Predict the 3D structure of the following.
Amino acid sequence: MSKIEKIAQEIENFTIQSEEELEQFRLHFLSKKSELQTLLGEIKNIAPEERKEYGILVNTLKKKASEKFEEGKVKMASLSHSPISSIDVTRTAKGVELGGLHPISIVMQEVCSIFESIGFSVVDGPEIDDDWHIFSALNFGEEHPARDMQDTFFIATKPDIALRTHTSSLQVRVMEKEKPPIRVICPGRVYRNEAITSRAHCMFHQVEGLYIAENVSFAEMKQTLFYFAQKMFGEQTKIRLRPSYFPFTEPSAEMDVSCNICNGKGCQLCKNSGWVEIMGCGMVDPNVLENCNIDSNKYKGYAFGLGIERMTQVKYKTNDIRLFFENDVRFIQQFQSLK
Ligand code: PHE
């Protein structure tokens, strides 16, 4: 078999099924170092009378190789185009579902940002604290029922360590560390050993506030809290203060806002009174200031503490506190669009 015939046979038998084989084909038959190329270069050494026929044969062979190579290229291109590049890239993308904030977080952030806008700064601290910060510094008497095992989750006794029952423990930490004027809010989780019902839970969230300076008045507190209530629930919101008792404030009050679920007509949340209690407040008891080494003759202050779950219920008109912690996506998803 002549060399030409041998190469013709090889071209014929070569199968091109992949990019690698295509490249092998090119190297074998079309590159400068290929046998075919060598045959072409030999034209000048062929006897003149045979040169024409030789030229035709070798060139036909080269044409065949080039054609097969081009065919292979087209085949590879079509393989690599399917199926990925047959996707319509101009089509609208499928939506990506992002997570969102839990309703409690939404309201907590909203409360914080209202107070931040009027000069309060946010502080954070431990959820497990000692008796001094949770009770003693705050003027709780030895016999106060909140210290009872029934109300507080103790982690250790003598010395007593417990899950904080309010974030007021943080306010003590701030008063011990900083000099007045002090203007802080303390958001966070708190724990009380209570039966879980539609209105109460053993774990809930609070934002407590504290303002200490010279000449702070009860009237100033009331106006600040009224401003807050209107920002939070709308301009139409009314507030009322009812006398109350807390060991750490004197005088003390409970603040109610007008119920925006029934607009005063009476419903389950406001227990048919038209008012919903959202926070406790009052002037800081001088004993508390002295416990934290603040001169109670020079400085006065007010404090308040509000429950986030209750506020979220009023704001979003939900009727059962337990829904917030069951984490049924169908429930918590609804709040994303309400922000
Ligand atoms: N610490 C109180 C509570 O948890 C709320 C409160 C804070 C009341 C500050 C008065 C002043 O119920």
